TrEMBL record:
Molecular functions (GO terms): protein methyltransferase activity
Domain of life: Eukaryota
GO cellular component: nucleus
Signal peptide start and end residues: none
Organism, scientific name: Dendroctonus ponderosae (Mountain pine beetle)
Classification via SUPFAM superfamilies: S-adenosyl-L-methionine-dependent methyltransferases
InterPro entries to which the protein is assigned, alphabetical: Methyltransf_16 (IPR019410), METTL22 (IPR038899), SAM-dependent_MTases_sf (IPR029063)
Name of protein: Methyltransferase-like protein 22
Length: 332
């Protein structure tokens, strides 16, 4: 691992660096920080020495954990079924009042808040290496799930929702509450098994079918099954897929392929601006997010808009100002 690669690491990766830096003096922590163990370095030389020590470690010598687990207690009594090293988390949320239905699908009037309370059980990894972060859950997926809930009245069962880079499938499960879902990712680390297990765990909520398919952003073309389904897809969703420049470039190219095929459809992309520490400036910036915005400029015949994130919050998480939502709509 080269020290330059530190630029692309999410800040939570610096927890390991922070523990290691205990042996170095003159290092302070920002007040109130919970996810950035090392925020202010008062000695530039010490900073470079510590970062080089960190960079010299093997890739498998550290693991990354999502900040999400530190914000709330998602502990579940349920046990993992795919990998005993995984955990199961309970994600409680409130249904919009107009979405309360009986077993036959008829709308009901909520008489109390308890009727609107629901819970998703999701199996996932608690920590992983950087290349398997899709096995964890990140805040962007919950922001996107909130958007799905808030806009659920606009989804029709005759139109499918396509998810790109679905990870362990939380947003696909939420989407399947309102429409059929095509859930895609690259099958690594038992991820397809985990997605299917999570869909089955939540069948009482996800009443529409979920089809799990392989879609590699770096592949030359779209899979035949995805191409065949696109005429019925009006909404494409993706969360937390922007954290590596090469992957971001491949992701945007995949989005372009999808938007170039009629009819018109929209792509919703939820992500968190990932600030990293740069050795050269001894400061933080969000290079992966900035690179993502640069890549969006190459899209043609597409309307690009930032979606305000002040819509109601239904899931429990910290909706920080770094969480953003972008909407790309093709013009036909």
């Amino acid at each position: 691992m080269d020290s330059k690669e530190l630029y692309s690491l999410p800040i939570c990766a610096f927890r390991r660096l922070g523990r290691m830096l205990n042996k170095y003096p003159n290092i302070q922590r920002k007040k109130g920080e919970t996810s950035i163990p090392v925020g202010i370095f008062t000695d530039r030389t010490i900073c470079r020495k510590a970062a080089c020590d960190f960079a010299a470690m093997d890739d498998e010598a550290y693991e990354i954990s999502s900040e999400l687990y530190e914000e709330h207690d998602y502990t579940s009594k349920a046990k993992p079924t795919i990998n005993p090293k995984n955990v199961v988390s309970d994600f409680h949320f409130e249904l919009p009042s107009y979405r309360l239905t009986d077993k036959e699908g008829d709308l009901l009037v909520a008489r109390n808040k308890t009727q609107l309370s629901q819970c998703l059980e999701i199996e996932h990894s608690y920590s992983t290496s950087l290349d398997l972060v899709g096995l964890q859950l990140w805040r962007g997926s919950l922001l996107l799930a909130d958007w799905l809930l808030d806009n659920s009245a606009s989804f029709a069962p005759r139109h499918s929702i396509l998810e790109l880079g679905a990870g362990v499938g939380l947003t696909s499960v939420v989407a399947a509450m309102f429409a059929p879902v095509i859930c895609t990712d690259v099958d690594r680390g038992q991820i397809f098994q985990i997605i299917n297990a999570n869909v089955n765990r939540n069948r009482h909520l996800a009443k529409h079918p979920v089809e799990v398919l392989q879609l590699d952003f770096t592949a030359d073309g779209l899979p035949e099954k995805v191409l065949a389904a696109l005429p019925q897809v009006k909404t494409v969703i993706a969360a937390d897929v922007v954290y590596d420049d090469r992957l971001t470039e491949a992701f945007v190219k995949t989005v372009k392929k999808i938007l170039d095929i009629p009819p018109s459809r929209s792509v919703l992309i939820a992500l968190e601006k990932r600030y990293v520490f740069t050795i050269s400036d001894c400061d933080t910036c969000a290079p992966c997010y900035e690179h993502f915005l640069e890549q969006l400029k190459v899209l043609g015949n597409v309307t690009i808009e930032a979606v305000p994130t002040d819509f109601p919050q239904y899931f429990r998480y910290d909706r920080c100002k770094e969480l953003v939502l972008w909407k790309l709509t093709s013009k036909f």
